[in-house]
Specification:
The protein is an alpha+beta fold. The protein folds into two domains: 66 residues, Orthogonal Bundle (Arc Repressor Mutant, subunit A); 59 residues, Ferric-uptake regulator, C-terminal dimerisarion domain (Dna Ligase, domain 1). Helix content is 38%, strand content 14%. The strands form two sheets. It has a three-stranded antiparallel β-sheet with strand order 1-3-2. The protein has a three-stranded mixed β-sheet with strand order 5-4-6, with no helix packed on it. Strand 2 and strand 3 form a beta hairpin. Helix 2 packs across helix 3, helix 2 crosses helix 4 and helix 3 packs across helix 4.
C-alpha cells in the first residue's frame, strides 16, 4: 500500500522515533517532491530549500530515512541510487535506457504475484524488485527524428 504524499514530515519522523532536523525534513520534502531523484538531485533541492548543507548530511539523512522505512532506495543496474517515498506496496519501475527516466509501474497481475517464486528454496519472500528497461516516449521520438534527419 502506498502512502499519500508527505504532508507532515515532522510527524513522520517522530512516529519512527527519529530526531527532527532541518536536513531530514528537507530531504523528506525533496524525495516527496521529486520521486526517483538521485542523491545529487536531492542535495540540489535541499540546498534550494534550506541553504548550505553538506553532502555528507544529505547521505546521512538518506541512509537514516531509508533504514527507518520512510523512503525507499532503489538502484537500477548501471545507475546511481534513487529515492522515493512510495513504500510498502512492492511496485516496480520502468527505466529509460537513454535518459534514465524512472517511473513507477504497479504489479501486472494480482496484488503481489512477483512474491511467489517458482522455487523459494525455503526463503520467506517479502519483497521483489522488478525493473523493466526500454526507451521512454521522449527518447523514442528523439531517436526517430535523428534517424529521419
Amino acid at each position: 500500500m502506498s502512502r499519500p504524499p508527505t504532508s507532515d514530515p515532522t510527524q513522520l519522523l517522530r512516529a519512527r522515533g527519529l530526531q527532527v532536523t532541518a536536513q531530514r525534513l528537507a530531504v523528506v520534502r525533496a524525495v516527496s517532491h521529486r520521486p526517483h531523484a538521485t542523491a545529487e538531485d536531492i542535495e540540489e533541492l535541499v540546498r534550494a530549500d534550506i541553504g548550505a548543507v553538506s553532502r555528507q548530511a544529505i547521505y546521512d539523512a538518506l541512509s537514516v530515512l531509508s533504514e527507518a522505512g520512510l523512503i525507499r532506495r532503489i538502484q537500477p543496474a548501471r545507475s546511481p541510487a534513487r529515492y522515493e517515498d512510495r513504500i510498502d506496496d512492492n511496485h516496480h519501475h520502468l527505466v529509460c535506457r537513454a535518459c534514465g527516466r524512472t517511473v513507477d509501474v504497479d504489479c501486472a497481475v494480482r496484488a503481489r504475484p512477483c512474491l511467489v517464486a517458482s522455487d523459494d528454496h525455503g526463503f520467506t519472500i517479502d519483497e521483489a524488485e522488478v525493473i523493466y528497461w526500454g526507451f521512454c516516449p521522449d527518447c523514442q521520438r528523439a531517436s526517430t527524428v535523428t534517424r529521419d534527419a
